[in-house]
Design a protein that fits this description.
With about 80 residues, this protein is mostly beta strands. It folds into two domains: about 40 residues; about 30 residues, no CATH class. It contains one helix and six strands. It is elongated, with a radius of gyration of 15 Å. The model has no long low-confidence stretch (mean pLDDT about 95).
Length: about 80
């Protein structure tokens, strides 16, 4: 599970792990913006660097598979019947 992150100006950044989000909230370096999906907004300036994300779609005969991945991890996976 990942936590969505917005920069100080409200623009989306790469998601982070819940442990890092919890630490940022405890140190008051971030605030909660939404509860569903859980999203935090950073209170300090950061770089605008983002990783490239690849979307994979597998159109089978009965189901369609979707996957969004970076070079290191899978961010989203789903299946539509």
């Amino acid at each position: 599970m990942l936590v969505y992150v917005l920069n100080r100006h409200g623009k989306p950044l790469m998601p982070c792990k819940p442990q890092k989000a919890r630490r940022l909230l405890k140190e008051q370096k971030a605030k909660v913006v939404k509860r569903t999906p859980f999203t935090i907004q950073l209170m300090y300036a950061t770089g605008e660097t983002k990783q490239s994300i690849a979307l994979g779609i597998d159109a089978g005969s009965k189901t369609i598979g979707l996957s969004a991945t970076t070079e290191e991890e899978e961010l989203f996976a789903g299946e539509v019947v």
